[in-house]
Structures are given as structure tokens and as C-alpha cells.
Amino acid sequence: MSERSSQVYYSFKIQTLRVESVHSPPPAEGAVQQQQHSEAPRSASPREAAVASPKEGARPKEGAPRKEAPSPTEGARPKEAASPREARSPNEGARPKEGAPVKQGSAPALQQLLSPGDRDKAARDPAPKVFIPSTNSMPDKKFFENLSGKGKAIGVLTSGGDAQGMNAAVRAVVRMGIYVEAKVYFIYEGYQGMVDGGDNIVEVTWESVSSILQVGGTVIGSARCKAFRTREGRLKAACNLVKCGITNLCVIGGDGSLTGANLFREEWNGLLEELAQNGEIEKGAIKKYAYLNIVGMVGSIDNDFCGTDMTIGTDSALHRIIEVVDAIMTTAQSHQRTFVLEVMGRHCGYLALVSALACGADYVFIPEYPPEEGWEDHMCSRLSENRARKKRLNIIIVAEGAIDCHNQPITSEQVKDLVVQRLGYDTRVTILGHVQRGGTPSAFDRILASRMGVEAVLALLEGTPETPACVVSLSGNQAVRLPLMECVQMTQDVQKAMDGKRFSDAVQLRGRSFENNLNTYKLLSTKRTAADLPKTNFNVAVLNVGAPAAGMNAAVRSAVRIGITEGHKMFAVTDGFEGFSRGLIKEISWGDVGGWTGQGGSILGTKRALPGKYLEKIAEQMRTHNINALLVIGGFEVCHFVLFPL
């Protein structure tokens, strides 16, 4: 039994025993309750489930005789059936007699199923508690019991360009702040509202953020503020915050907004002293509001901030781009056109790169990896090769900040003119613009922003004067806190690397995910000549099994093209295991999987049939076609197949 399987089994077994303990016989006459020896009841940790007497924690008076445990039914009113988590044994808290056998469902029996660490806790605790690992992943009040926000005020603002998911982040900050009993304030219109004060800073309630989770943009507004860049503007902002008692700021924006917030934090004490000297605030306010906590969340569709895998709004913008590409492909195919799509991103090529990977674009221009000298010939050659494979359209994606190897801009109009002059293709330009910013946020952005908002409030509550300003980032699908200015510095280093023509450094600074996406796109979009391919005698068959799922065709395309690049002979199997047994196998080439990325379902065909009754015929087909390896894409049927050796 694997470690994970054993954990699941024992978790289930523990819950079963707890239910069984409800029906265990009443305690033997003379059984006594275990006394609590500590001065005060010890609060159980979230991983501890206390099965204790209702009077647990009460210390008897000295010399008082111990009372026998009353019968569970004595004078008691019948209760409704308890849930497994609430079920308690009738002899709960009773000490078994020496030598008496331990009954199933009793605390000692349950403790045998616990980990060594939990058993040690149970041994140290004088109370007869059972320590059961919690299976509830949802946070409860105990999780935040040491993080009270009483007496604290949190201000939340959005700054810079809007991004889908900002409202979800605002909602999470407000509700988490109220949950820990802190006051939460909206700061309307970003830093401009902070400088202007008045009605721009408003305390909010739980209901204030109802029905905004699915709304795009930002309901509290965003504006660029020149005044905040001056000390006079920051002085007004500090005065307005002190009047509301706000010493915790949650800033949702890009690197410029977060840099301004950090500068504001560094000047905070000096600003308060100056305000006190001018008589705008009381001198006691300097000590009362001695330091300002800053936590940032990156809201940007560009995904140009180093230190986080994804920024709020990026996934939604990517969805907009793919929707447009899918729509354009139909008209492009009808008229055999070439489309040049310009996407946002400023000096970051993430949106262009990932959308090119997702739609199988013929060519992509990004600032971090500019084309080499003579790119015009290379691009035209690739477009004509794809048309020669009977492809009726070409898609070229250009990042708005695209450059060549000499740091000269490459524009979408320039690319269009080149295709028309060199190849004579009917070519059109589509600039997506603010369509990428608008609309409802994707499910990913809603969840990401909500998780980041909760983590931001926790960071503010745990902040101290010595704690540096931090930014909440996503790393390995976990919300983490990173030093704000270190991330800002890395982000600025990317631009410096591109300005210095150190493009390999720029790609590495963007992060491992960006680098992997770039390498994957190059691998899947560039077909090597037969002379350049390695020679192997390895044959690989690809098949889909089980229910069809979105992305199956993209996986087949990647597998086929990578296999061919490595010199293997690739085979496609139709209709899963059943088709495999009937010999529905054929060799598949590079061009055969062109355009598969955006197709739903399973082009190869798939069936839910389990492999059991087909194993002998499948083995025969593998010998006939000399197949050395199988790549099976599907659900549970894949696992079932792996368990049956051929």
C-alpha cells in the first residue's frame, strides 16, 4: 500500500471507529472520569480532534470525592444523531480498568492508528483525548485565532492599468479583513483618491463587495496620479490615512504602483513628523501610527512581474486572445489569408508567446527573443512551407514591444508589407487592443485573486516595523510572500538586459516557466530537415482512451512532433484499445497534426472500453508493427491498462 493510500485508508478507518464508538456498550460500573491536571483547559490544535468529557478542563476542588461517571441516558433528553465529527462515545473520558481488554472504538484503540508524532502528543497530554488528523481543508476560526485585526484599519486600492480579477482581489481583502475584525476602507481612484481624501476613502462592510467577483475591471477605480510622485502629494496622502486610522495598505497594481507604495512606506515617519509640525495632526499620532505596512498584489495582464508565475488578469487576457484567434481562423481559412495579430504586453512577450503556443501560430515576435539577422527570409520560408502542406491560412502573432536583434521595433504593419511583397498572400492586420483587458475574469483569475487577497491580509496582520514590504506571488501553485523591492529590481533588470542586447539573460530573468514555453514553441513550430534528424529504430504508438477531454489533440500533436524531432517513427491508433486490437494503426507525420491544438474532442477517436479482453490482440498488433512504446492519453482506463502487463 502506498503512503498516500495508507493515509486515506487510516483516515477513513479512524472516522469509522469514531462512529462505531457511539454504539459501544455503556462503561462498567465504577468507572471514573479522568481529571484534568492543567490549570486551564488546553486549546486543541487544528490537527487534534478532542474526544473529551463535557466538563473537561474543570479542576475539582482539593479533597472532593470523585463522582462516578453517570449513565449516558440518565436524565438526558434524546438527541438527534450526531455527525461523524460530532459523535462521542458514551464512556468518553472513562479510564478502563487495569488488564481490561481495549474495546474497538475506545481512545487507545484509535491512537494505534495515529502517526508517531500524534501518539507522542497524546502521551504527553494528561486528558484522554484522541488526536485525529483533520480531513477538513477549509480554514476555521481556530486557524486565525492568533491573528486578530481588532483596532487595525486596512486600506485597499487599485492603481495603474486595470486587469480582470482585480475585483475578486478587492473582495477577498475586504471580507478577510472583516473576518478578523479589522476595519477595511476603499480608497477610490487609486493614489489620486488617497491624495484627495474626503469621500474617496470610505469604510466598507461585508455586503459592499457582494456580486463583484465576476465583474471585470475595478469597481473602486484606478487613475494615474502625478501628485503622488511629489513629496507634497504624499504628505496629503499620509494626512488622509491618519485621519482614518489606516496604517495597513494593500496595493493592487503593477511594478510602478508597488514601487510608489514602498517609497511611501519609507517616508512615512518623516511625513508624520512634518504633518505634526504643521499642526495638521496631533503629536501623539506620530507614536500611535508609527509605521505603515505595505503588501502588494500584481494586477497586470502583461505578466511582466518577476517573482510570480502568473499575475492577476493574465489568464483572462489570454482567453480573449485565443477567442479572437479561433474566430479569425474560420475567415482566414475560407479566403486563404494570412493574419497578423498584434497583442498587448508592452515590453513583455508572455501573452504573444503563450497565445502562439496555444493556437499553433506559424511565427511569433517577442522582445525577449528577437529574430536573428535575415529573419525576413526565414519567416517567408516557413509560411510557404506550411502552405505547401495544404494549409489554407497563416497566423503571425506580434507583441506590441517586439524588436529585432538591433533593438529596432518590429511592427505588425511592417510584417504585413513583407508578406505581401515577398509571397503575395492576402494579408490582414488585427490589433486586439483593449479587448484583452475587458470582460469577465476567467475562473483561474477569480481563484488566484481570492487566494492572494486572503494571503495579503494575513501578511498585513503579521507585519512589524522590521518587516519589509512584500508582494504576494504565485509560485508552484502556492501563494507566497516575497520581498517587494527585490522583485521590482529583477523586473527592471529584464529591461536592462534587453537594452544591453543580453537577450538570453532576459529570457532567464523572466523565469523558468517563460523559458520552457519558449523552448516548447520552438520545438513544435520548427520542422527539421531529414538530414538533420537523428536516426533511430524506435517506434511509438499514440492513442486516446476513455472519455474525450479538451486538450487531447494538443497532447497528441506535441507527442508526434517531438517524437519525429527525436528521430522516432510515430504511429496513431484510432478508437482506443478496441481499435488497437483491430489493427487500426497508421504512421502519422509532422503535417498530419497541423491545426490540432485548438480542436476539441479526440480526432484519433476514443472509446471507454477497458483493455482486459483486448490484451492478447494488442500484443499481437505491437509485434506486427514492431512498436516499442505506447503513449496512452486518457483517464482511469490508462491506469487500468498499466496494471495489466502485456
TrEMBL record:
Q: Which reaction does it catalyse?
A: beta-D-fructose 6-phosphate + ATP = beta-D-fructose 1,6-bisphosphate + ADP + H(+)
Q: Which domain of life is it from?
A: Eukaryota
Which key words are in the record? Allosteric enzyme, ATP-binding, Cytoplasm, Glycolysis, Kinase, Magnesium, Metal-binding, Nucleotide-binding, Transferase
Q: Which GO terms describe its molecular function?
A: 6-phosphofructokinase activity; AMP binding; ATP binding; fructose-6-phosphate binding; identical protein binding; metal ion binding; monosaccharide binding
Q: Where is the composition biased (Basic and acidic residues)?
A: 56-69, 76-100, 117-127
Q: Which Gene3D superfamilies match?
A: 3.40.50.450, Phosphofructokinase domain (3.40.50.460)
Pathway field of the UniProt record reads: Carbohydrate degradation; glycolysis; D-glyceraldehyde 3-phosphate and glycerone phosphate from D-glucose: step 3/4
Q: Which cofactor does it need?
A: Mg(2+)
A GO BP entry is: fructose 1,6-bisphosphate metabolic process
Q: Which residue intervals define the domain Phosphofructokinase in the entry?
A: 154-459, 539-639
Question: Listed GO cellular component terms?
Answer: 6-phosphofructokinase complex; membrane
For region Disordered, the annotated ranges are 16-136
Q: Which NCBIfam families match?
A: 6PF1K_euk
Its name, as the record gives it, is 6-phosphofructokinase type C
